[in-house]
What we know:
Layout: H1 2-15, H2 19-31, H3 38-51, H4 54-62
Helix pairs in contact: 1-2, 1-3, 2-3, 3-4
Amino acid sequence: xxxAGYNAMIQSYNSIHRPSKALQILERIKxxxxxxxxxxxxxxxxACSHIGLLSTxxxxxxxxxxxxxx
Length: 70
């Protein structure tokens, strides 16, 4: 699936300490109107933890489905 490919890209960027590149993938996901699943949400949260910018992390969290945040 497209999300699996995007998740692999995000994880790759996270592993080489490029969280801003990882978060750019979210923009592509949004453009394709895809809904985030649990694995990709976790990868995005990991990118947020590396980037350390609260405003950026808050924008990312807005796109995670509520049922994954409970």
